[in-house]
TrEMBL record:
Name recorded for this polypeptide: alpha,alpha-trehalase
Organism: Tilletia horrida
Signal peptide start-end: 1-35
GO molecular function terms attached to this record: alpha,alpha-trehalase activity; carbohydrate binding
Reactions catalysed according to its record: alpha,alpha-trehalose + H2O = alpha-D-glucose + beta-D-glucose
């Protein structure tokens, strides 16, 4: 039964309760009553009404003043979110605010695991120095998934190699320096070339220096050399020193950073060289060697003899340096030199650090590290920096980019964030062609920036980081495939251990690929194997390389298919089911018929058959693969709008409406699996509201991609885009945190991984695969372009998208999508899907144009839909103002408190307004006020922030320049509950009615601006958040 609000209900805010798909906003009549809605599921495509204001701008150039350097002028030691890092895909080092050295952040409560580095180590957050695939083998870890068996691998950290101290009399600049002695501070990270600079004025304590208490200017520069993977560089320029004074410089390799290592040793060589050596616990064949060669001077003198003469003899390490080093570690070594300040008052010191491990360089890891340091010092700083920058320039030039053409504050912020995401991914991986230990390490969730998640490789690599890299930088994506190939033999042995055919990869994988407590091979997340197999097939689709498919991809795809064909069990009526597994929603473990796992099995078996057909290897397939793929169980609800059921319990219980969802799960069936379900749009609506906001940054990017493909009205894809980046991105270096809220006590008890490259990878996919609609196909390029109004009319360009040897620039603008075929031999077939489906043929140098799907004005009756909105109060991390007018009841504007909060909506021009309809979702406000105005507001009046406002768009008026004069239309109208909690239906998997209220406006009202003020909330939130405003409809 459906209840319609009466015309008289609005003034008293009497509420309507009607059951319909959450994001289906029905058109309003010209009166205060609703037109009679027809209760139908949302369709995937709908006739669209073109917007007359949306032109097409094909401008593939970047914003002319884009700043690749991200910086902070605030000195905040001990804040891990503010720490930059250097990395080149083989070595990495996180740097403290001081610019160099080892720093461990004290936990809030280490015994309670509050403020630690999280599962499974729960150790302190440190400025980690890393080598790719430098794993130990220990008995256990504090955290685990299953009982510990076979021991446990964990990433070992190497000694901190970037320590370089300056001592003036008795005062030494070091980590932990008194913040009051620091001024004129600036630390920066270039997301163009990864160079980190830390510059400041340091005033040594009075009485401890011979500078007359004057400030000394220090500038540290750190580099992980891109072209020389075994080289780290640190330079210190000290200026404003008193001429003729004696100072001491200390070059150190600090064993404090060498966590989980053994066989520690260190020593001194001639020519200002020190060395340190460690190996991971219980691993003797992967020794790491570090050599630091110090240089005094300009960096252009290639004579080591001259350098040694300038430095003179080593001197005693100053007492003020020693507390900054772990002198009890056998891996710690330091060398000090007394220098006389020249007349210029400036000293320049450079340390060239060679770092090599046995996995990549055995049996020559020792000599490789030494030769790296000495050769680098001979080459000189200037040339090395030039090489490094040229290498990064080549990567950017040869690879891809995302260029956003609109020039607003919000689009500039998005441009910076997407470029930073590309950089952070590239900085933590090397090209696959570089060989063992270099080009086959894959990417851990935090890459080389920390030991979060113990440096393990998860499905994060294949499902989250891989697709964007494959589209823009396939040679770097290849490292992810190579890693699984390196461990293929062990994966086969794992399966044999459990009497399974084929292979089994462990959930967490390290250097050996063995099953472990944190990385079980059975009774857990079997979908990992499908994720890996699908990635192999996607690489073939993207490259067309049959030789690679036969030699490297097929053995994995085939053996995963064999394992799954044995794993599934026959059910009634020719169906198949699965049991005792865990889907991506890790809140529900050991379930039956996980939707994502079962769909992934089906997709894997289909791809296996396709791969066998390409290679002519049908004899290696099994006859039941087709039957399993077509008949595997996918549960769905029985309501009028069928929703895919996530899983069922082993005891026969079914996933229900009270079950929490950790992260994207069922929605993954639509993307990336492209698995058909009864109503994928209903799946998106339902599960987007069920997902825990305290889950990881592994949800909203998928929601944005699916919404871009399936939504029939509004602009929720843009809301999800913001939700994929804004709550997780940490200034100043645009690094992703795993959580929206970093504080353990406020986010459900999670210590977020950092830098969370998984989130960066998912966010990149919203641009490469979301609005372009790009999907890999073996015989063509597939696109289904759409664009939200916030990016129109100019749109954006995916530059350098790679497909089977062809390079394309794809510009999605407000009206048309242009496909510029930059290079590639032969013809390229292009399929355009969706509303404007067609087929094209393209050759190098040609340009094709198709219409861009626009749904923001589709069936437009809501005057507010996808216009601009801003809030005057702080919101919850993903409770954006735009969510209230994006055409979807599945997204909400949520003020951070229950205090009065105002949402200002700009209708673009003055219009007659008769009614405001509010859908509060699950938590209505206690009272609502409505204000109307006709003037243009100043930017300052709206208090827009990245967390509470939307961008302007092409359907809005020009930027306002005066404060609107708002008149109260309705004052503090009480809100009644229209959809009270019903325990008898709470467990049903269905799209429930929101709590709705109508507010009739005074007769003959006209307004350009509508302000909705909400106060209070019926439900109390642990965080103190206010009401949820799912949608505002103005008629």
């Amino acid at each position: 039964m459906m209840l319609l609000p009466s015309a008289s209900a609005a003034a008293s805010a009497s509420a309507s309760a009607w059951l319909l798909p959450l994001a289906l906003l029905l058109p309003l009549s010209a009166t205060t009553t609703w037109s009679a809605p027809v209760l139908q599921p949302r369709q995937q495509e709908q006739e669209e009404l073109p917007s007359s204001t949306n032109g097409s701008t094909t401008n593939t150039s970047a914003l002319p003043d884009f700043n690749w350097t991200l910086a902070t002028t605030t000195f905040q030691p001990g804040q891990w979110q503010n720490q930059p890092y250097v990395a080149n895909g083989y070595i990495g080092a996180r740097l403290p605010a001081e610019g160099m050295g080892f720093y461990a952040i004290p936990p809030v409560n280490e015994s309670g695991r509050d403020g630690t580095n999280g599962w499974p180590l729960f150790d302190k957050r440190v400025t980690a120095s890393t080598i790719a695939s430098f794993y130990d083998y220990q008995n256990s870890t504090l955290g685990t998934n299953f009982p510990q068996v076979n021991g446990q691998e964990v990433l070992s950290l190497i000694p901190t190699w970037n320590s370089l101290f300056l001592t003036v009399s008795n005062a030494t600049y070091t980590v932990g320096v008194d913040p009051s002695s620091i001024s004129n501070y600036e630390q920066s990270l270039s997301i163009r070339d990864g160079i980190v600079s830390t510059a400041f004025s340091w005033t040594p304590p009075a009485g401890d220096n011979n500078t007359g208490n004057a400030s000394i200017r220090l500038n540290y520069t750190a580099i992980a050399h891109r072209d020389r993977p075994t080289l780290g560089l640190v330079r210190l320029v000290a200026s404003n020193l008193p001429a003729g004074a004696e100072v001491v410089v200390t070059d150190a390799i600090d064993g404090a950073g060498a966590l989980r290592t053994a066989n520690q040793s260190a020593g001194l060589l001639d020519d200002a060289v020190i060395w340190s050596s460690v190996s991971p616990f219980n691993v003797t064949d992967n020794v790491a060697w570090l050599y630091s060669a110090l240089e005094l001077g300009s960096g252009n003198d290639t004579s080591s003899e001259t350098n040694a003469q300038q430095l003179g003899a080593r001197t005693t390490i100053p007492d003020s340096v020693t507390p900054s080093l772990n002198t009890t570690s056998n891996a710690t070594i330091a060398q000090s030199y007394t220098l006389t300040v020249p007349a210029s008052g400036e000293l320049v010191l450079t340390k060239y650090v060679g770092i090599a491990s046995g996995l990549a360089f055995a049996p020559n890891e020792n000599s490789t590290a030494l030769e790296t340091a000495e050769s680098a010092r001979q080459t000189g700083w200037d040339q090395l920096v030039s090489e490094h920058r040229a290498a990064w320039d080549s990567i950017w030039a040869d690879g891809g980019d995302v260029v956003i053409h609109a020039d607003t504050n919000d689009t500039r912020r998005l441009q910076q964030s997407v470029r930073a995401s590309i950089f952070h991914l590239l900085a933590n991986v090397r090209e696959g062609k570089e060989g063992k230990g270099l080009g086959d390490n894959s990417i851990a969730p935090a890459g080389l920036t920390s030991d979060s998640y113990a440096g393990a490789i998860f499905w994060d690599a294949e499902t989250w980081m891989y697709p964007g890299l494959l589209a823009l930088y396939p040679s770097f994506a290849e490292s992810i495939n190579n890693y699984r190939t390196r461990l293929l033999d062990q994966a086969v042995r794992n399966a044999q251990t459990y009497s399974q055919p084929g292979l089994l990869y462990p959930w967490t994988s390290y250097g050996l690929g063995v099953c472990s407590g944190t990385g079980p091979c059975v009774d857990y997340e079997y979908h990992l194997n499908a994720d890996i197999a699908i990635a192999q097939w996607q690489y073939y689709e993207a490259t067309g390389n049959q030789t690679w498919l036969r030699d490297q991809g097929w053995p994995i795809i085939r053996d995963v298919a064999r394992m799954f064909a044995s794993f599934v069990q026959p059910g009634p009526n020719g169906t198949y089911f699965t049991s005792n597994l865990t889907d991506p929603n890790e809140y529900s473990n050991h379930v039956k018929n996980g939707a994502f796992t079962n769909a992934a099995i089906s997709v894997t078996l289909r791809y296996a058959q396709q791969a066998a057909g390409v290679l002519g290897l049908q004899n290696e397939t099994s006859s039941n693969w087709t039957s399993i793929a077509e008949n595997i169980t996918i549960l769905k609800s029985n309501g009028s709008v069928p929703i895919t059921i996530e899983s069922e319990g082993l005891d026969g219980s079914i996933f229900n409406g009270t079950t929490a969802v950790k992260q994207a799960d069922v929605v993954l069936l639509q993307y990336p699996l492209e698995f058909p379900t009864a109503d994928p749009l209903a799946d998106l609506d339902y599960y987007s509201m069920k997902t825990d906001p305290n889950g990881p940054a592994m949800t909203s990017s998928i929601h944005s991609i699916v919404a871009a493909e399936l939504s029939v009205r509004g602009c929720e894809s843009f809301t999800y885009l913001l939700a994929a980046v804004d709550p997780y991105l940490r200034a100043p270096y645009d690094q992703f945190s795993e959580q929206q809220i970093d504080e353990y006590a406020q986010n459900g008890g999670t210590n977020p991984a950092y830098t969370f490259l998984t989130g960066a990878g998912g966010y990149l996919q919203t641009w490469t695969h979301g609005f372009t609609g790009y999907r890999s196909r073996p015989d063509r390029l597939y696109l289904n372009p759409s664009l939200p109004p916030q990016l129109a009319p100019e749109g954006y360009t995916v530059k350098g998208l790679r497909h089977q040897g062809h390079v394309l620039d794809i510009t999605v603008s407000g009206q048309n999508t242009t496909i510029a075929h930059v290079s590639g031999s032969g013809e390229l077939r292009i399929e355009i899907g969706g509303t404007y489906a067609t087929n094209l043929t393209s050759t190098s140098g040609s340009t094709s144009s198709v219409q861009t799907r626009r749904i923001d004005r589709t069936g437009m009756s809501n005057l507010a839909q996808c216009q601009s909105a801003s809030a005057n109060a702080t919101t919850t991390p993903s409770g954006f103002a735009i969510a209230a007018i994006d055409g979807s009841n599945a997204t909400s504007w949520v003020p951070a408190t229950t205090e009065p909060a105002a949402l200002l909506i700009d209708l673009g021009q003055e219009r007659e307004v008769v009614n405001v309809h509010l859908n509060f979702g699950e938590n209505p406000a206690r009272s609502v006020s409505i204000l109307l105005g006709g003037a243009s507001p100043s930017p300052s009046s709206s208090n827009s922030t990245s967390s509470s406002s939307s961008s302007s768009n092409s359907t809005s008026s020009p930027s306002p320049d005066t404060t609107p004069e708002l008149q109260t239309a309705l004052q503090s109208v009480a809100v009644n509950i229209s959809a009270p909690y019903n325990a008898s239906t709470a467990e049903l998997v269905q799209i429930v009615a929101g709590n709705t209220s109508d507010f009739a406006l005074p007769a003959n009202s006209r307004a350009r601006f509508v302000q909705v003020v909400v106060e209070g909330a019926y439900l109390e939130s642990e965080s103190g958040a206010g009401a949820t405003v799912a949608e505002v409809i103005v008629t």
